[in-house]
Amino acid sequence: MNPQIANQDASQVELDRLAELSQDVIRRCIAAGASEAEVGASVDSGLAASVRLGETETIEHTRDRSFGVTVYFGKRKGSASTADLKPESIAQTIEQACAIARYTEEDPAAGLADRERMAREFPDLDLWHPWDVSVERALELGLAIEDAGRAVAGITNSEGASVEVGSTLSVYANSHGFVGRERGTRHMLSVALLAEDDAGMQRDYWYDAVRSAADFMPAAELGRKAAERTLARLGAQPLTTRQCPVLFAPEVARGLIGHLVSAVSGGALYRKASFLVDAKGKRVLPEFVDIVEDPFLRRGHGSASFDAEGVATTKSALVEGGVLQRYVLSSYSARKLGLASTGNCGGIHNLIVSTGDDDFAAMLKKLGTGLLVTEMMGQGVNTVTGDYSRGAAGFWVENGAIVHPVEEITIASNLKDMYANIVAIGSDIDPRSHIKVGSILIERMTVAGA
């Protein structure tokens, strides 16, 4: 039998087993007095192999199991989990969850998602692509990536290359009668290289992340790209403090969209811990910006037909014409706000940010003279106030051309101002994330340096 077909069959058998166990546990929870119950079960399997300087460094096989039980006694909630699926461990987990719920304070917002919101359609989103790669082949691939990078003149050392193979099987079931099965694969290649000149040593890396190994960029190309990025950083200089336009490269630009999502997420909103409280229906981005959530992208990094509590996902606008159309809510946060779930328990699904026609070279021309940011450091983002101050590295650009690399700087502003002052969004989308966005040009920020 074809190994991939055998893998698929084995995964379906495992999903069926987890589903049957989940339904049995729910019945036992109800029999123990719970008014509602839900179960989340998953099995993660993987292989990680790494090489450094032409030698094998690590080989790791993983298989992690999780089985979580949540019960509700009216508005009182209790949760417990185990990694052991033996009958005695399951029985103890049910008992612990029920015991916690009986003595927990009531929470008016507690409970399962509404029954009528449960997903009923489960389209094939093309997320399951098991990679039947041997350890030997994984190591060969890692060596090919590293060798290609080290072969580039000027590269002096390597922190190694890695090959990661991963698959997840998961089941969510609840006492509404909902049983949702999901399976997905995620694979990654990466390499980090070093170069040195009279000014010192520099390091950079590159990686590729895909659902299907058939979609990987060629190994040699990945190694060379990491080498080119590393060499480009040689001779990096600090900048004097100034205000200037800032262009965020695609791989860091998605973080700006991530901060927006965090600020309009239910937990931050009902705690009043967001600078975008009461922002629905108001302009938060320039008029030319639309953001659509599309959970149904085939092979998408965030694709799913239901969220972490079984609510059906839908394709819908988050931002339209720069105006915030809705929040990002689970059932719990929605009840706290007097609203309805948006199918986002567990997070957002595939955000697609509208772009212009400008590729990266054209975005540099639009930047003119200013800072190109390619790496961010630190966690200096306050979602309560919107204050933004983070370490950065990148390149100083003059008249649309890169002049020299830059390091040891901090860029600062306020997210509200940054979003309002977005000048353009490039077509150079980074496909390695569930946030699909190109480079983002902001009209002015403070750059603090020497």
From TrEMBL:
Keywords from the UniProt entry: Hydrolase, Metalloprotease, Protease
Q: Name one GO biological process term.
A: proteolysis
Question: Its Enzyme Commission number?
Answer: 3.4.24.-
Tell me a Gene Ontology molecular-function term this record carries. metallopeptidase activity
Keyword Protease assigned? yes
Using the record's annotation, list all stretches that form the Metalloprotease TldD/E central domain. 129-234
Q: Where is the Metalloprotease TldD/E N-terminal domain?
A: 37-101
**Family per record:** Belongs to the peptidase U62 family.
Quote the NCBIfam families the UniProt record gives: PRK11040.1
The protein here is known as: Metalloprotease PmbA
Q: Which organism is it from?
A: Tahibacter soli
